[in-house]
Amino acid sequence: LYYLGIGLGLGMLGKYTTLFYIFSLVVAMLLSKQRRLFLNKNFYLAMLVGIVICLPNFLWQYRHHFPVMHHMDLLTSRLLKLNTGKDFIINQFLMTLPSFFVWLGGLWFLFANPAGRKYRLLGIMYFGIIGILLYFNGKAYYASAIYPTLMAFGGVWFSQLSFTKWFGWVKWIALTGMFVITLLTLPFALPFLSPQKLAAFYRVSQMDKSPVLSWEDQKQHALPQDFADMLGWKEMAFKTAKIYHALPDSVKKETMVYGDNYGEAGALSFYGKKWGLPEIYSDNASYVFWLPEKFTYKYFLFVCAQLPESDDAFFSHWGKAVIKDSVTQKYAREFGAKIMLYSNPDDSVRIIAEEHIRDSRKQFNFH
Predict the structure, then answer these.
(1) What is the pLDDT of residues 19-47, one digit of tens each?
(2) Which residues, in sequence order, are CB contacts of 237 under 8 Å at separation 6+?
(3) Rg of the chain over CA atoms, in angstroms?
(4) Euclidean distance between CA atoms 46 and 52, whole angstroms
(5) What is the reported pTM?
(6) For the chain, how far is it from start to end, CA to CA, in angstroms?
């Protein structure tokens, strides 16, 4: 129980979706023989240990009006709303395709095998987690942490079958099937070729219409989204640093380097240390907390996937805007992202920027 409390506490520090697992655990306990644990004082002491571990983070969230909820609202409105229950279920099998039958065997073992029924709580937890994620349009991989446990039970069940008189051949069929499926899914599971060669491989093998190449925007692309997300960031940061260092020293002092989203800001921050970029700012996600209270900049080096609208309240008050460069790695998710240099601001820029910073901080009760 204490290991469980420590594990859940550390899990909450790593990802808040651990709450789905905790809720499913409580429901599963109520529906199984493990409900007797509610009468065990060590259960509550163990959960208290977990709460103490994640308490500092919870207090920080409370003090700032739970930024995680703001982030989830953005995630839901922009990405999660595109998820469908059908795709979610299909992806549960695709995530574990070479060995999906192992965790299915684990579920069977938990509910149908006399030796496994005393662990039925874990099977109930699985369906609880899947149900919650379906309800909230969660991403398929949010459920991935439950499968190693199911595979462990599936492994026990299959090992028992393989030692019976009639099923000794099962282990060889299972091993052969896993090997063959791994070979077939390797092109989508690992980027084993360069982006150009891999995209060409998909075309030649007629895999370019595969659902695996469909991204969150529901459109087909040349590479899987996970692969495309690995590309372009270093190029983006290098080109931004090159532009920044080409500026006169007097201009550098008055230049804010800004990423439109936390991915761009994160790439500039990570690689920028090597290439001498100054502190990177953004108003996206937790970057809000590090925005300066006063906007005193005369130049704005802006990295963005989409250009601001011509009537944008902030950008329309800069006298000059020049596209200095862009991300040219065509297989990158950030392909075409622009690196803009804004200059000649009027008096409204400072007022608009500082008001926006105040409003952004206010929603998190940040002082």
Answers:
(1) 999 999 999 999 999 999 999 999 999 99
(2) 267, 268, 270, 271, 272, 275, 277
(3) 26
(4) 10
(5) 0.79
(6) 40
The tens digit of pLDDT for each residue in 83-125 reads 788 889 998 998 898 999 999 999 999 999 999 999 999 999 9
Residue 304 bridge partners (DSSP): 338
Length of the chain: 367
Q: How far apart are CA 285 and CA 261, in angstroms?
A: 8
> Beta strands of the chain (E only): which ranges?
255-259, 280-281, 299-304, 318-326, 338-345
Distance in angstroms (rounded) separating the CA atoms of residues 350 and 295: 6
Judge whether residue 187 has pLDDT over 60: yes
Scan for tokens 């005393």, then name that residue.
118
321 bridge partner residues:
342
Q: Dihedral, CA atoms, 89, 94, 95, 100, nearest 10 degrees?
A: 90
> Chain centroid to CA 86: how far?
20
Angle at 234 between CA 312 and CA 186, to 5 degrees: 110
